[in-house]
Amino acid sequence: MSVSIPVMAWGVVLASLVVLPLALRALWTSAVVRHEWTSTSSLIFLAGMVGGLPTALSNLVAPRQERLDAFGNVRVGLTGWPAQVHQLLIIFTLGAALLFLILRIHREPVAGRSWAAILLVAVFASSDLINGGVADLGPRFVTLLVLLLAITVAQPGRPAFLGVAAVCLTYAFLSSLQAGLHPTYAFRACRTDKCGPGGALYSGAFSNENLLGLVLALSLPFVWLALRGRIRIIVVGYILATVLLTGSRTALLAVAAALVALVVLRPNLDRLEHVAIGHIRQIAAIVGVAVIAIFGAVLPFLSSVTSTLGDRTYFWRVALDGIRTSPLIGNGGTAWPQLYQSGRIPISASYSPHNQWLDVLYASGFLGLVVFVSLLGYLLLRDRLLITTSATILIPVLAASTLERPWSFAINDGLTFILLATLLASRTPTIPNNWDAELSASFEASATTKEESHS
Known about the structure:
Layout: H1 5-33, H2 39-61, H3 81-105, H4 115-130, H5 139-151, H6 158-181, H7 183-186, E1 187-188, E2 201-202, H8 209-226, H9 231-246, H10 249-265, H11 279-298, H12 303-306, H13 311-325, H14 335-341, H15 356-381, H16 387-401, H17 416-423, H18 435-454
Antiparallel strand pairs: 1-2
């Protein structure tokens, strides 16, 4: 079925006008009325904005035009004032993360929740050092490292999830604004290998449909966990419809995995100590994560399957050849982008081999792979009461990992905020002045008064 671009654009705008105010109200209730928005929420939000906001603003002000490089490939990346805005945002994010770390490290216990991720970043950088690529480590690498260090003193749980929800809703709004102002740029012609249900690919305010789709799809579990009430169902439906419009196969795989995880595992952050989590659901969570992880790891080696995956087959072969040359320590986090300079890959593929497992192996070898598997095990099993919640977050990430690289351990990018929030997916400590505490205290005071009056 093919629908005209103006009709789809108006559909996106009208849906956004209906759903986003409801979502904003629910976000306001959690963030302000319940006092659950903290400096951690702001840090996660900032980390999410630094990766995509300059591109979104650039496309809103002056919609992108295709530019070809010397190899005849469509150029990606920012130039002019958007590139300057991006650099300023990186510097600001780095400074904010440092300030966050300095101010909280003296009054908050340092948690080990991100040590495995920091160790993996260190392995990536060590491989760069060994392979002579240390000079290519820049501000985005430093920003990633400082953000991970800041997470050690950040507040876990819903505050972090609210930051992700705010990022998701912001990009949904900017994309709907792009659809209203520049519909022919928000939607683009289908490719021979993929197309959206309306006969076009919806990239919104981003430069391609994959990034918009992945940002929304991987944010979906956090939106569900951050908000409360039935409004979540409407917001999740809106996110699902938007991801469907993008036509991104990886995002569709991730959002489908997220929906199945939400339905089967039924994660719940509230009153964890008072709600018995069935062993069957816990086992299903562990098995689900393990199966999807193993499938993503072995997929590049299944020649009968990879032959149908287009350019990814070639990228995976190139990555496997590189892994064989340095299997223990890898080639470094900056090595894969350099393949574009030699003409082996197009610039649009220069960020990764399009598989999380190959990305880790290529950059850091089997040493890094062991650390990465340990990180996944820790994230899943660190809290018995949160196994289903952790699995609900990890399953869509691992589903996307089969065809993309959601988590970068070499630089801070557009999906780093998902990694940070996943590391913070644990129980929220009680805040003395939040709404729940005040309500609970009032109930206790009322009960005490009644007991004294009866006595």
